[in-house]
Design a protein that fits this description.
Elements: H1 9-33, H2 38-46, E1 51-52, H3 53-60, H4 64-76, E2 80-84, E3 92-96, H5 98-109, H6 112-119, H7 123-141
Helix pairs in contact: 1-2, 1-5, 2-4, 3-4
Length: about 140
């Protein structure tokens, strides 16, 4: 019997990066088919619950000034709503609208490659993958 060598940490990093990049390409293409940039679609995903503009910038990994333009466009399309925070009118809170939820659902439904890839996994593989993601993600975001 042959011995399987476990991949190195670098090998795993490269594999996860490749999967992430392919997933993001599918997400960006689906977003574009629904009239959104990938940043706009990612912002919709990030405001499922009300989020202050500064926190949204952190979630998107961009400068607060860039978020203003993204939210302006989403608001103009009726996909998100921005309002002053009740306790501090200087803080603006962004929330997805019902049309925004519908567009985000359509974008996700339109990600054919991701559906095909994850759909190819058995139930046991899905459970294992989810467990591994839940184990690693907190260490990457800490």
């Amino acid at each position: 019997m042959g011995t399987t060598t476990a991949p190195s940490t670098v090998d795993l990093m490269e594999a996860v990066a490749a999967v992430g990049a392919a997933y993001f390409q599918d997400f960006a293409a689906a977003a574009a088919r629904h009239g959104l940039s990938s940043s706009q679609a990612k912002a919709l995903k990030a405001v499922q619950e009300p989020v202050p503009m500064r926190a949204l910038a952190g979630r998107l990994g961009c400068d607060a000034s860039n978020v203003t333009g993204i939210v302006d466009r989403l608001e103009g399309l009726g996909l998100a709503h921005r309002e002053a925070a009740p306790g501090d009118r200087r803080v603006k809170i962004v929330t997805i609208t019902e049309p925004g939820r519908q567009v985000l659902t359509r974008v996700r439904d339109d990600m054919a490659r991701a559906h095909r890839a994850f759909g190819s996994l058995s139930a046991e593989q899905r459970v294992a993958l989810e467990g591994l993601c839940k184990q690693v993600l907190p260490l990457l975001t800490a």
